Amino acid sequence: MMRLKSGRADGVTARIPALAMVATFVVLAIIPLFEQAYAVGEWTFALAFGIAAVGLNMLIAEGGLVSLGHNAFVAFGAYATADLAARHLAYWESFLLVAVMALVLGWVIGAPVVKLGHLNFALVTIGAGFVAPTLALRLVSVTGGANGEALPALNAPGWSGLTPAAWLYYVGLAVLLACVLVAVGLRRSQAGRALRAQRDNEVAAEAFGVQLWRIRCGIFALSVMMAGLAGWLWGITSSFVAPDSFDVTLSISLLAGVVMGGLGFAMTAIVAGIFVEFVPTWSSSISPAFDGLVEGVIIVVIMLVARQGLLGLLKNLYDKLTGLGWRETPVPVAAAPATAPTSAAAELPRPSMAPQEPT
Amino acid sequence: MHEFGEQFVNGLVDGSSYAALGLALVVILKITRIGNFAQGSQALVAVYFVWQLLQWGVPLVLAIIISTIASFLLGAIMYGLIVRPVDRDQGSPYGTVILTLGLLSVLEFGAQAIWGADPLTFPALFGNQTVTFFGVATTRQAVGTVGVLVVLCILLYLFVERSKLGIAFRAVAENRLAAASVGVPVLWILALGWGLAAAIGAICGSLVAPTLILQPQMMSTVLIYAFSGAVLGGLTSLAGAVVGCMLLGLIDDLLAAYVPAIGGSYSLLVAFVIIVAVLLVRPQGLLGHREVAAR
Asked: Is the reported ipTM for this assembly greater than 0.85?
């Protein structure tokens, strides 16, 4: 086991991201204790957007693929949940079913589209994002058309002693935590290294044995699955789904949130979720156009001056203050068997776009 | 037969409005390898500018010319100040995809903040009188739209193939480093390309505005169709963009007219299925070249 750098960096400093993550989840966990039912509902929406953002963040930062169809996949999850509820399935059953269906949907759409290159991928997904609300309007027999569909409320189990809103919030928090852990685990796994290798240098990655099509399909399907689960939570929280909630602007909001938080950081999803839920409410009180304008300006400014996002800025600030970089801590790659062919490819120089962050 | 003729002409007219924007996209793609998702919003702002000039009493033709020149300058400046720093710092394609999506949002909602979300009426440059060719009735505006596209294509062809600047343009598209080493001012050529694309977009927007009704979301559908058409035709070929967009316009209108079950709102979906299918067989598009496949 090779250590790249010894000293204090191995101790407390290396655990800062993990500690920050734990602290954030603790703060998130005590929110329902202080808020009214309505505000708890708003926070649950933020969790739902956060779940979708985990998938999008993973797709862009690890896979190098930009999807603007995530509004369609969130809509898919929400409508599927409503439909399954109408068939008298319990929510835990529909959770599993939505996860599986979204995974399959992602694979089916991804299978041809990931072959087409980055630009065409973005284009086809933005097309899906545009078509989705229209489809939801037209497929009246499944979606209820413009009238939408109602969902029954989720009741808290008696032993918990929680209000329904708080119970749903904790369920959402658990799902978000699970998704974040999956993303962190993926980043540290061999598959994660293979993903970054194909993102940075397609030819080199393929030469090292990375199967481009399979791994891209996989990351896209996983990302769509998380968007579907976000739709599941969104649908139950809103207790009503209608086409106008899933405009392509939702995808742009998610993108803005993820870019603002910082591509590649595990905590980004939480920043993005809060951003997508609360910034529009705040900004549309100024002007209806202000929402999109703010998001656009954030994307452009972040891309121009702080490509690592807010979390990246925080990290750089911390590095400067302590003089100890997290970056110098042993990267999990060192723990992988030296024979793993992808680990070498993963250590190519990386663009500053997606900062390396041992979580 | 007449009805089919009319649908066919409608398809061609829609196709040519997509084709104009498609040309703009391909100009940028060819020389900078960037897919500019903000192209439609740039055109939208140009159209709103024309509308504003009309309110100030400027005649329509002059207003379109002023707006086109302004778009040219703004497009070039936008490339130099915003797009280039992001493109230069990192070779990865998704950075510019995210950036131009951000610009799309800024321009579209910026226009909405200034001019409001309500639809505005926009006069037709060529008038709305009906004209009849071989028994097929259409409007003067429709004929004018196709005519302008043809003129644009001829001018662009002459520029790229026959002018000295066009040679520099092709050299930059082919190999930036080699072009720079023989003295081509690469940065100016790239900015010129972005300006040219913005100007083409402004003309396209001014032509479709009377039919589509001027409002902030006006160009988003046109952009999607233009992009899809350009992909279908091959992102590296100017002729391909025109052919692809025309085909898409025809498919769209004919489906809406004759296959009502999947026409209308589903036609975009059908178009995408066709595009994905074509690209799986010919990844470079119908008329594209393989070796410079867009990233």
From this structure: no
